[in-house]
Amino acid sequence: MNRARVQGWLFAGSFALALLLQLMPLPLALAPLKPYWIGLVLIYWAIEMPERVGLGFAFLFGMAGDVMTGELLGEQALRLVVLAFIVLRFRARLRFFPMGQQTLAVLALLLNDRIVMLMVRGFSGEAMPPATFWLAPLTGMLAWPFVYLLFDDLRARLRASE
Amino acid sequence: MRTDNATLFAEGSVSTLRLIVYLAFSVALMVLDHRGHYLEVLRRTASALVEPAYRLAAFPADVARATRTAVATQDRLAGENRELREQLLLAQARLNRLDTLVAQNARLKGLLDAQKNLGLSVQFARLVDVDLDPFRHRIVLDVGTNQGIAIGQPVIDAHGVMGQIIEVLPNTAVAMLITDPTHAIPVVIERTGLRTIAYGSGAIDRLELPNIPISADVKPGDKLLTSGLGGRFPAGFPVGEIGSVSNDKSGMFAAATARPSAALDRSGEVLLLRDQPQPYGPPALQGEMGPPAELAGPAPDAPPAAAAATSP
């Protein structure tokens, strides 16, 4: 029971941390490289705990992201619903991919997310972003193994301490 | 654990129908928000959560800056101090000379009975080091409605115009920088008086002036000032300096780029202009003017005489 509570804290804490990391500034030259932390954390939990992270959860979390950083209510909700849908659809395979392959799959997911974002912003009348717009998925891909291993390790420790 | 006994290539537990419902829902939300700006209302309602999150997210950057100052060598600080003192001396000298000009100007304006020029009333604000979106040029300031900040107030630093306030929370405000791709600011070229508009380019060190008449006299190095048209920014603040001039694609206009004067990427402290800019449009009607009453002839309510007195 205690374990379930700690697990719950880890779950909620990781999402809160993702929102904070998304807000944290990087030096100006590196700013476009900031990975989409919110998306990475959602991918992780959608792979590991699909019974808790459904489309509805992704939608609500996206709304929270919009309230924190967004300009248009619903933009991140849409992006995260698309992200969660693809992950949940292919979860059975994503889960058992070797790390390298999984990382590439995350790159594809994040690139797709950028395309969705571009579509949304295009429709709301914003200008085309510069070419550096496409760099964030690459850093997101590089960050993925660390996110995955960190959370897996934390969860394994929780299980072991039981 | 429904999905654990699914085969490797089976479809997951989500149905496409639910996806479509959620997508439709979020699109509807975006359309509504695009028209009604409900996000701002929501953010203001949730400000008790949003504002601490901003402060918390800015905390590591603040600590890093404080550490850098703490471990900076005394040598460097002394150098910086000397430099600042020289700058202050220069600024003070310039101000002293300006004071006499201001007095003279006020006297001349009084003689001309011109519209009153508002003094510069500013409010100091500090940046909250938070990155909302690297492709949108927004800054977060640590003042809000509780400090009397309102939407539309111009934001300046020591060197020029930075942007304007677009959203206020109780203790936080969000400003759009002049380099945001959706921002435009009416400017006048100081040397020639040519009026045009400077658009944000999406790059932090560049403004674009895409529609200057081809015959206009614009050279690299020309200074741009706010023109005061549009009623948002008061006239006469430095905006930037022309960097390059070329023809646009159609050949009908000259297109120039400019470098913003304000230190958009470096300012840690900014000033918010308190006054609304001078009202635009023609000046208010003056009271009835004419020759002194004793010269105007008979009683003023006699129509023919009054007409005679007012006609030139």
Plain-language structure description:
The complex is a heterodimer of chains A (162) and B (312). Chain A has helices at 2-23, 37-48, 55-69, 75-89, 91-96, 99-123, 136-161. Chain A is mainly alpha-helical. Chain A has one domain (3-160). The N and C termini of chain A lie close together (10 Å). Chain B has 312 residues and is of the alpha+beta class. Chain B has 5 helices and 12 strands. The chains are: A mainly alpha (162), B alpha+beta (312). At the A-B interface, helix 1, helix 3, helix 4 and helix 5 of A face helix 1, helix 2 and helix 3 of B.
Number of strands of chain B: 12
CATH homologous superfamily annotation of the largest domain in chain B: Rod shape-determining protein MreC, domain 2
CATH topology of the largest domain in chain B: Thrombin, subunit H
Q: What is the terminal-to-terminal distance of chain B?
A: 95 Å
Main location (chain A): membrane
Pfam family, one (chain A): MreD
Membrane topology (chain A): Multi-pass membrane protein
Function (chain A): Involved in formation of the rod shape of the cell. May also contribute to regulation of formation of penicillin-binding proteins.
Keywords summarizing the entry:
heterodimer, A: 162 residues, mainly alpha, 7 helices, 0% strand, B: 312 residues, alpha+beta, Thrombin, subunit H, 6-stranded antiparallel beta barrel, 6-stranded antiparallel barrel, globular, disordered N terminus, disordered C terminus, MreC_beta-barrel_core (chain B), coiled coil (chain B), Cell shape-determining protein MreC (chain B), cell shape (chain B), Cell/Rod_MreC_2 (chain B)
Write the layout of secondary structure elements.
The complex is a heterodimer of chains A (162) and B (312).
Chain A: H1 2-23, H2 37-48, H3 55-69, H4 75-89, H5 91-96, H6 99-123, H7 136-161
Helix pairs in contact in A: 1-2, 1-3, 1-7, 2-4, 2-7, 3-4, 4-6, 6-7
Chain B: H1 16-36, H2 38-45, H3 47-71, H4 74-112, E1 122-128, E2 138-141, E3 154-156, E4 161-168, E5 173-177, E6 184-189, E7 195-200, E8 207-213, E9 223-226, E10 238-247, E11 253-260, E12 269-273, H5 303-310
Coiled coil (chain B): 74-101
Biased composition (Low complexity) (chain B): 291-312
Protein name (chain B): Cell shape-determining protein MreC
